[in-house]
Inverse folding.
């Protein structure tokens, strides 16, 4: 599984790289703080596979990086090979930025 540090993701975003962010946290978590992208709570992922492209880099993030790791592992069994986990999630992001 590919991992990306908050610093590496910030560089990608600052350079306008073609990357899609997917926040898999619950609604209330996203309302408190998010870095953009689309919102697909973890429980909705199986019903929203069509919303996750396979032809570009996709970074999944959650609060600590644990749920996004699990989600990526499940999606990889369905053929996704372009998914990247934000290492440490929003907790790591907020500690830096």
């Amino acid at each position: 599984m590919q991992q990306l540090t908050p610093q590496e993701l910030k560089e990608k975003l600052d350079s306008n790289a073609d990357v899609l962010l997917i926040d898999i946290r619950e609604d209330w978590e996203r309302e408190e703080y998010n870095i953009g992208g689309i919102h697909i709570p973890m429980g909705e992922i199986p019903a929203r596979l069509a919303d996750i492209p396979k032809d570009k880099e996709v970074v999944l993030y959650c609060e600590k990086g644990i749920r996004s790791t699990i989600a990526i592992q499940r999606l990889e069994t369905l053929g996704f090979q372009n998914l990247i986990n934000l290492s440490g999630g929003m907790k790591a992001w907020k500690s830096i930025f």
User: Anything to note?
Assistant: The chain has a mean pLDDT of 97. The radius of gyration is 12 Å. The chain has four helices and five strands. The CA atoms of residues 42 and 71 lie 7 Å apart.
